[in-house]
Automatic annotation (TrEMBL):
Protein name: Arylsulfatase
Segments crossing the lipid bilayer: none
Leader peptide range in chain numbering: none
A Pfam short name: Sulfatase_C
Domain Sulfatase N-terminal: 30-350
Source species, domain of life: Bacteria
Molecular function terms from GO: arylsulfatase activity; metal ion binding
Entry keywords, A to Z: Calcium, Hydrolase, Metal-binding
Homology family: Belongs to the sulfatase family.
Annotated InterPro entries: Alkaline_phosphatase_core_sf, Sulfatase, Sulfatase_CS, Sulfatase_N
Alphabetized PANTHER family for the sequence: ARYLSULFATASE FAMILY MEMBER (PTHR42693), ENDO-4-O-SULFATASE (PTHR42693:SF53)
Organism field: Chitinophaga lutea
Lineage, uppermost ranks: Bacteria, Pseudomonadati, Bacteroidota, Chitinophagia, Chitinophagales
């Protein structure tokens, strides 16, 4: 009898223990915010040496996360760069090049999978504000590429029938006068026409308010926010609140307003208890448009700027903050790129990678500062329709003969007007970027084996992605979306 009572008691205790065991809740899925600037140079944020204006919010991001010193846009021009960011592909793989005009016959194909589509399949809310530039009409606007919400411009803010001085163009012989009115789009519909520089001055605050509203509205479930500012791409303009505030001219005023926009997003995350589990990525689509002089930024001493495969055109500032996972105050000298954002975010959020081949690599080990992490061994610099203009491996960069614009042969413009940016021949050259980031000393004669190694690696890309400079089509290129022309 005593044994039966003891056995019964043991069963009761065991049952109670089982019933009281509640498995721990899984960690909430992280949110992701990508803040993408337009034409912001490597040397523009104060933490990269910019000034004399101040960018305290970007400084704080760097202090709380990781600052990259060798981070590359997918290509040194608007549409191609954005295609690379959102799809994880070198843009020439998916048929996107240059800056798409309002009447461009091509767009980002709906067969390509974007970050938004991958995360939406995981139950994320997805929103975009700002410049799209991957197709200006349905079915190629953001809502057809995985975003639940969109407010912004369909292309660059200088694609409008307005002169550099802000006055409407009435001369029909002026090609700029042939642009259609510049639309502000919500969803798939135009809700307003941007007509003046005063209208442009509202864009930064308009985007910021909508971004913060999106965060608040979706704070109870995981979200992906893509915030693509229209500036500091020209024409630059600032709200009355920031006009004259920096003491460093209109560009300085704009940098402080853009920095405040970042601060507003960060504050919204913090006020809603989301900052520790949100990965925030800040970077730029390419380097500065230097021929606009005091309305353009700087490269921090890197060679040339936007529209070139030199470092000033393609190496961009990049800050990442995720307090739950990324150690604070890290400076990374490893090579990484915007094409690496998609596979990294997919890994972090447990999303599937695209069915089609991509070029990006998962850099999460780099973000977590795992020992020996160096995911990206090399990087290729394509430009134009499909020209392989340079390749980098480790500290060495081999530049192939091609024609490229230069900002060095003419004085830049002033107060919104451009200077000349002629094309010049560029010879074969090898640069050691560790000691010569300005690409001034050709060391190919000293290191012929390095030249040979990089040439062989470039040939592999020529076979798959092609190279117009060698008249090679490539076996792995895909077609862009085709826009129905009226």
């Amino acid at each position: 009898m005593i044994k039966k009572i003891l056995a019964a008691g043991l069963l009761a205790v065991t049952a109670a223990a089982v019933c009281s065991f509640i498995p721990p809740k899984p960690a909430p899925a992280p949110n992701v915010v990508v803040i993408f600037m337009d034409d912001m140079g490597y040397g523009d944020p104060a933490v990269y040496g910019g000034g004399p204006y101040k960018t305290p919010n970007l400084d704080r991001m760097a202090a709380r996360g990781i600052r990259f010193t060798h981070f590359y846009a997918a290509q040194a021009v608007c549409s191609a760069s954005r295609a690379g960011l959102l799809t994880g592909c070198y843009p020439n793989r998916i048929g996107i090049h240059g800056a798409l005009w309002p009447t461009a016959p091509t767009a980002l194909s709906n067969e390509e999978e974007t970050i938004a589509e991958l995360l939406k399949a995981k139950g994320y809310s997805t929103g975009m504000v700002g410049k799209w530039h991957l197709g200006s009409k349905p079915p190629f606007l953001p809502l057809q590429h995985g975003f639940d919400e969109y407010l912004g411009l369909p292309y660059s803010n200088d694609m409008w029938p307005v002169h550099y001085d802000g006055k409407p163009i009435t001369d029909t012989a002026n090609n700029r006068g042939k642009y259609p009115p510049l639309p502000l789009i919500e969803g798939n519909n135009t809700i307003r026409i941007i007509k003046t520089l005063d209208d442009q001055a509202e864009l930064t605050s308009l985007y910021t308010e909508r971004a913060c509203r999106f965060i608040k509205a979706h704070k109870n479930k995981p979200f992906f926010l893509y915030m693509a500012h229209s500036m500091p791409h020209v024409p630059i303009a600032v709200s009355q609140k920031y006009k004259g505030r920096s003491g460093a001219g209109l560009f300085g005023d704009l940098m402080e307003e853009l920095d405040a926009s970042v601060g507003a997003v960060m504050k919204t995350l913090e006020e809603n208890g989301l900052d520790k589990n949100t990965l925030v990525i800040f970077t730029s689509d390419n380097g500065p448009w230097l021929n606009y002089g005091n309305h353009a930024g700087n490269t921090g001493g890197l060679r040339e700027g936007k529209g070139t495969s030199f470092e000033g055109g393609q190496r961009v500032p990049c800050l990442m903050q995720w307090p739950a996972q990324i150690p604070a105050g890290i400076v990374s000298n490893a090579v990484a790129s915007t094409i690496d954002i998609l596979p990294t975010v997919a890994t972090i959020c447990g999303a599937k990678l695209p069915a089609r081949k991509i070029d990006g690599l998962n850099i999460l080990p780099l973000l977590k500062q795992e020992k020996g992490a160096n995911p990206r061994d090399h990087f290729v610099y394509y430009y134009g329709v499909n020209s392989l203009e340079a390749i980098r491996k480790g500290k060495y960069k081999l530049v192939f003969p091609h024609k490229a614009r230069t900002y060095k042969n003419n004085l830049p413009g002033y107060d919104g007007f451009p200077g000349a940016q002629p094309n010049i021949p560029v010879p074969l050259a090898l640069y050691d970027l560790s000691s010569d980031p300005g690409e001034t000393l050709d060391v190919q004669k000293q290191f012929p084996d390095v030249v040979k190694e990089l040439e062989a690696l470039a040939d592999q890309y020529r076979q798959t992605l092609g190279d117009d400079l060698k008249d090679i089509k490539g076996t792995e290129r895909r077609e862009p979306g085709k826009v129905a022309m009226k």
